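Propose amino acids for all 197 sites.
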């Protein structure tokens, strides 16, 4: 089931099945790890399933994350409730798999097109452009993750903030404030998209 709305508010679903996709080096796996860890902090059942193309950096990278109120039977997802597409090839590959009523988040900085479907919710976020405005293009993944947090109730932003401290190596903790700013910008994009509908 995808995130639903009730009077404009996002309603927590008993299970969210997500595919996060892009190319190696975009921080796709970090996004998935943060969601999975945040789900665990909230007492939910989670799976995290990474998948890489033949090259680690520049090749394809995607991960599947399931966050559920009940034990997860399989980490394999064929019809996700949410897809985050960080580049054009990921959009082409995973948009058709998204279940009707699901949420598609498109990184409009790199995808080059919008959605071709009319039976899903779509949020376009210029993740790379926003990251560049923040001063570091590497946080585009956090902008997209913030958009996901704002467009669903898969995890609370404060749980993802706590997860940053657990998942990032200590030598990277100086980047946590920037990552939190990027998350906040993504949440703002989702709020603006909800307000426009």
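Proposal:
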């Amino acid at each position: 089931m995808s995130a639903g709305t009730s009077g404009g508010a996002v309603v927590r679903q008993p299970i969210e099945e997500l595919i996060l996709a892009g190319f190696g080096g975009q921080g796709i796996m970090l996004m998935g790890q943060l969601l999975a860890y945040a789900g665990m902090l909230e007492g939910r059942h989670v799976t995290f399933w990474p998948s890489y193309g033949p090259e680690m950096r520049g090749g394809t990278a995607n991960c599947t994350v399931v966050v559920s109120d009940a034990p997860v039977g399989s980490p394999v997802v064929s019809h996700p409730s949410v897809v985050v597409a960080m580049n054009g090839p990921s959009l082409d590959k995973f948009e058709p798999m998204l279940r009707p009523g699901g949420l598609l988040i498109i990184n409009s900085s790199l995808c080059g097109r919008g959605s071709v479907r009319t039976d899903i919710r779509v949020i376009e976020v210029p993740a790379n452009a926003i990251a560049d405005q923040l001063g570091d293009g590497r946080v585009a993944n956090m902008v997209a993750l913030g958009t996901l947090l704002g467009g669903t109730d898969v995890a609370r932003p404060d749980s993802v903030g706590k997860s940053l401290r657990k998942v990032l190596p200590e030598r990277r903790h100086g980047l946590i404030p920037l990552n939190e700013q990027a998350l906040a910008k993504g949440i703002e994009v989702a709020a603006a998209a909800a307000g426009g509908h």
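Residues 4-195 form a domain with the Pyruvate-ferredoxin Oxidoreductase; domain 3 fold (CATH 3.40.920.10). The longest strand covers residues 15-23.
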